[in-house]
Amino acid sequence: MTPSYAMFLAFASLLILAYCNDCYVSAATCHPDDESGLLAFKSGITEDPLGLLSNWKPGTDCCFWSGIDCIDNRRRVRFISLYGQPDNPKGYLSGTISPLLSKVRNLRSIQFIDLRNMTGSFPRFVYNLPNLIFFSIENSKLSGPLPADFGPLSNLYSLNLKGNRFSGSIPDGLRKLKELTALHLGENRFSGEIPNFWDSFPKLVYLQLQHNKLSGGIPTSIASLAPNFQNLELNNNQLSGKIPEFISNFKGLHTLDLSSNMFTGVLPKNFKNLTGLRNLKLARNKLVDPFPALAIDRIVSLDLSYNKFKLGKIPEWVVSSDAVESLKLAGCGIKMRLDDLKPSWTYYIKFNIDLSDNEISGSAVNLANGIEDLEGFWMSGNRLKFNLSDFKMRESLKYLDLSRNQVFGSVPESIVGLEKLNLSYNRLCGKIPASKFPASAFKGNACLCGSPLPACRRL
């Protein structure tokens, strides 16, 4: 979930709470329709390894069941929020969503996040929930096409179906959701062109269609979303053509991600108007110079990798930002000594930098050792020359790629704390310390020896 979308979730929850008048906690049990609807949902669950629904028991107050909130003076269920644990292989529910959940008539918000194994098609029972304004089923296994008609859901503020298996074209019927402020259909299997109906969404702030199979260009009606539009994520599709000039009019845009598509040509000169951008990702397209002179005041995440840019140096507006958390300029034609880089960055947890496949020389020691929370450091395919023993393998460091440089010295034992490592094709010598890494991580160093490479010869 992106940071901007997480902020929206928090805002939406506050907005929903505003509907509560004269709220109080009563000792009464919940309404029988609410109880029967929720128990019907539980009956459709085939696996609940963590007992998320263990206190959903008949005859008890469902307003105190896990994931349930009753925020009104009539003791009616208003919110269902069930979250799995994606880092735990047993941390999610399995089963189907019972249509009898529609008996919980006062529902305003449904959030099923990271339940992973919830199967079936789009749950049409939500058409029978007239008060529903927030609907999220994220990271499950729902599949099939979306319905053609969304009219019964015309009060929705947010629709989030990210991370499922929905397929087919994005239906025209979505245009009836005129109250939407956020639409998230990313990480599904939608195909065809992006519909040209965005002038039907006067309040839309977040649009996320990433990781699908969408083709064609960016439709002109997206221009109507200015000036309040904040987030556009169309990455990892099959989109083509030029990046349209009208994107420069989104003065409030915080996140623009068009990476991993087939966009061509130059960026519009008026991109310099997007001073409020925090996340700009254009990697892996076919964009060419001249790269416009931008004036972003506090860039947080930047990825321009593997286009046809010849930047020459890291842009000044990047070097002077104190908010950078992720900088990826791989294959951007950068020619500089890394020792000369004196950034203003205030380092954050999980800082990542990728300057691979450029013409960068000098030492990486001062830069890397100065980042206390460095998580990923990718510098392959440059001309770096330094002693690896001087490089701090911090506890935070998980990913290190220094391959295809001129790094010398020995391999330190501290590599054991890394998750991924590539030191191939350098000038390292000596015995490799015991680790989990394959031979490919060390090949191409003439005098490295020991497992996983051939044994060291005794003198």
From TrEMBL:
GO cellular component: plasma membrane
Keyword Transmembrane tagged: yes
Record bears the keyword Methyltransferase: no
Pfam families reported for this sequence: LRR_1, LRR_8, LRRNT_2
Signal peptide: 1-20
Domain (Leucine-rich repeat-containing N-terminal plant-type) ranges: 31-70
Subcellular location: Cell membrane
Keywords: Glycoprotein, Leucine-rich repeat, Membrane, Receptor, Repeat, Signal, Transmembrane, Transmembrane helix
Major location (coarse): membrane
Its membrane topology: Single-pass membrane protein
Name under which the protein is recorded: Leucine-rich repeat-containing N-terminal plant-type domain-containing protein
Organism listed in the record: Stephania yunnanensis
